[in-house]
Amino acid sequence: MSALLTREMCQVAWSIMLPSVKEAAELGVTNKFAGVIVVLDPTKYEYPSDELTEEDVLFTGTAWTSEEHRGNADKYRQIALAKAKVAWRTGLPSREVQQNAPFLYMDGDTKWGGSVERNGLVVAFSGVQAVFDEWIAASMAELLIAMCRHEMTKPDGVMDADDSFIAGGLNPDYVDLPSFGPGGR
User: Fold this and answer.
1) Strand order from edge to edge, sheet including 115-118
2) 83 in helix, strand or coil?
């Protein structure tokens, strides 16, 4: 799991996003206040990857006010996961695959847009029109990226620590590296 991006951070970000999602529905921009957002664990991302398991899901959040929409939660989650899988496998937003690279589709993929990929961070939303699903997913992804950047640069953040490695200690990947004398390798 990421040293910075946590389930708790995702919950905070989703709490920030929900009022905008609700306001968009109330203003008639989107067709309802309903849906499921999925954030995949970027440390498990291997491009390209055909497999997507429950262990790859870092966070799932929901949006709805009516029992009718709550009854569709499984459907919204299934489609959000399918959108995430397209982005996970291709490294492209699901809309981008639909419109510019449909030859990347495989049997079982969803045809809908609504997922984004940002340097291995995949976020997908399903519940409203696909163009707004993508807006919600992209906004959530950008908020998470900003929150992680803040964790790096805030006073007493990662960059302010005396240690050269994330969370302190010596990175085991750097132990027993061969040393090269003058002239290099």
Assistant:
1) 57-64, 34-40, 121-126, 115-118
2) helix
- Beta strand 57-64 with 34-40 is antiparallel
* pTM for this model (two decimals): 0.85
Peptide bond into 48 cis (omega under 30): yes
Q: What b/e string do you get for 68-91 counting C-beta neighbours within 10 Å, with b at 16 or more?
A: ebeebbeebbebbbbbbbbbbbbb
Q: Where are the domains of the chain?
A: 7-155
Q: What is the mean pLDDT of residues 142-149?
A: 95
**Alpha carbons 56 and 45: distance in angstroms, whole number:** 8
Give the 3-state secondary structure of residue 64. strand
In tens, the pLDDT along 59-90 reads 999 998 777 777 788 999 999 999 999 999 99
CATH topology assigned to domain 7-155: Beta-Lactamase (3.30.450)
Q: Where is 161: in which H helix or E strand?
A: none
